[in-house]
Amino acid sequence: MISATAVLQSRFDLGHELVGVSDARRHARDVLCEWGMPDEVLDDALSIVTELVANAIRHAETGESRPRHSPLSSVLELRVVVGHLYVVVHDASRRAPILRPLSEDAENGRGLLLVAALTEGAWGFVYATHGAGKLVWARLSLPRAATDGVAPDSVPAADQADQLPRSVVAVGAGT
Fold first, then answer.
1. Where are the domains of the chain?
2. Inter-residue contact 172 to 139 (CB < 8 Å)
3. Are strands 134-141 and 123-127 parallel, antiparallel or unpaired?
């Protein structure tokens, strides 16, 4: 069981090859299981990790909108803050993630639709304030059963519950 006020954080540095996606999934599964994440959240989180990390690596490889001397690697962060799990991916690209309309002919481009559906629209991005690139984030609510047993006075006010963890600002899609 996770405390409603728990602040948990994990950071995983990714390479610039697509093998990083499976490494990121493995890392996320290990960390989230260690944190006692409920199965329904775990499955959704792993799908989100897959999509966001694949996008970060794919766009870093192309070098599109990436400053010339920026590193190619990306970073995955997992955070539990005030009853929510955040999946945050930092990459070196300045290219904004675009939620494309569903197309039967498209061979790719459905990943952000999946992220939007799994998070009920609670996702977005912000350009990095220090260094290059951007942060793409997705927020999953933890089920009440996962945070039961917490004293009511220890749960932050509703206006605090919707705040993103430090370094993530609510801009872009899903806000």
1. 7-161
2. no
3. antiparallel
* β-bridge mates for residue 88, sequence order: 77, 137
7-161 falls under which CATH superfamily? Histidine kinase-like ATPase, C-terminal domain (3.30.565.10)
Residue 116 CA: distances (Å) to CA of 80, 101, 110, 119, 138: 19, 12, 10, 5, 8
- CA-CA-CA-CA dihedral for 99, 133, 13, 40, to nearest 10: -20
CA atoms within 13 A on the CB side of 50: 13
Task: Report the distance separating Cα 133 and Cα 71, nearest Å.
Answer: 10
Looking at residue 57, what is its pLDDT? Answer: 86
- How many Cα atoms are found within 13 Å in the side-chain-facing hemisphere of 11? 4
Can you give the pLDDT at residue 94?
Answer: 87
Q: What is the largest CA-CA distance in the chain?
A: 52
Which two structure tokens, joined as six digits, stand for 132?
């290059």
Q: How far is CA 53 from CA 14, 79, 144, 174, in A?
A: 8, 16, 28, 18
Walking along the chain (175 residues) 10 residues at a time, the average pLDDT comes out as: 68 81 95 95 97 86 48 84 94 87 69 93 92 91 63 32 40 37
